From TrEMBL, chains A, B:
Species of the source: Frisingicoccus caecimuris
Keyword set includes Transferase: yes
InterPro entries in the record: P-loop_NTPase
Name of this chain's protein: Cytidylate kinase
SUPFAM superfamilies listed in its UniProt record: P-loop containing nucleoside triphosphate hydrolases
Pfam families with a match to the protein in the record: Cytidylate_kin2 (PF13189)
Domain of life: Bacteria
Keyword terms, alphabetized: Kinase, Transferase
UniProt GO MF annotations: kinase activity
């Protein structure tokens, strides 16, 4: 219980952050949670369905009531998802050691002791090349658009919920350019950081 | 010549960045340059005195001529120092492997191939404690003022000359919180990064 440790990984789109996190968790022999797994956990949990109901029962607010202000409908659903995901993240942190990708986990666990907060980045050209290859996008300008669009979504999401700059160095323990050592080299290097910190 | 590598280290005040850089250079057996050494090098070099003269001989500019615009006098001297320092940094990078602290070296060497760009940071409370101990400042609020004032100077200097955010993750290869592993632990960890990258 008290010896659990959590690695949170934020990442630029196309930096290989998710793959790095997955391989890191495998090497450390700990759990790995990305967006879908946390969403699934939220769906499964009775507490979180309750939380959704509670959110539903809040007094109508002109800023969040979809009937009064239709544009905010998505925002309201996002809020509820963010709250349930945050609750799931806090429960995970109590239960087990794991790697958590995205979902503002570094912010959610900001009061938690055994957390290493990592951010993976890479030069734009490398990220475009990576995304082009991964999704078979043949036109570089299209791949670039996709990279910038996804960065924008992540930035907007993170900044909305944390009031902090996405990908900023604030409160991060390690920010690393994955192009320097490559995916596997970066995994090994971060594993060293974890080993040194937690004597794993 | 072609196998030289340079480690640039930016750092928050009180993060131990300079000490880390010095110990890293010792362990790697390469040169170490901080502000004073680079200034001294600039003074010694004939080329740089020439450069100062050239700067002096530039056509009067209402934005930089101290007689037309007194407030810019300091700025003009700073500009000349920045140019000479930048020249010295580029010469160093051609001549030898070394660690360079501050002086916007990451920006100056942005086109240089064998450069690792590192930034050292630490939580504010840790930096205040460090500065209090180092300079025997007994009142914590005074130490805090000193830390924030020096950060402000570095931010202002960096942003003025590079048009980039100081301490931002942009273009950095590694940003690390020195409180996680401590000074010596951080030195060893960064040395690993250098070894892996340059097979030193």
């Amino acid at each position: 219980m008290g010896n659990n440790y959590i690695i949170t990984i934020g990442r630029e789109y196309g930096s290989g952050g998710c793959e790095i996190g997955k391989k890191l968790a495998e090497k450390l022999g700990i759990g790995f949670y990305d967006k879908n797994l946390i969403d699934a956990a939220a769906e499964k949990s009775g507490i979180h369905i309750d939380m959704l109901h509670k959110a539903d029962e809040k007094p109508a607010n002109p800023l969040t009531n979809p009937f009064l202000h239709p544009g905010y409908e998505a925002g309201t659903i996002n809020d509820r998802l963010f709250w349930t995901q945050s609750e799931v993240i806090r429960e995970l942190a109590e239960k087990e050691s794991c790697v958590i990708i995205g979902r503002c986990a570094d912010f959610v666990l900001r009061e938690h002791e055994n957390v290493l907060k990592i951010f993976i980045q890479a030069p734009l050209a490398d990220r475009i090349a990576r995304i082009s290859e991964k999704y078979l996008i043949e036109i570089p300008s299209e791949a670039k658009k996709e990279v910038l669009r996804n960065d924008k979504l992540r930035r907007s999401y993170y900044q909305f919920y944390t009031d902090s700059k996405w990908g900023g160095r604030d409160h991060k323990d390690l920010v690393i350019n994955s192009s320097v050592l490559g995916i596997d080299g970066t995994v090994d290097f971060i594993k060293d950081f974890v080993d040194r910190k937690f004597n794993t």
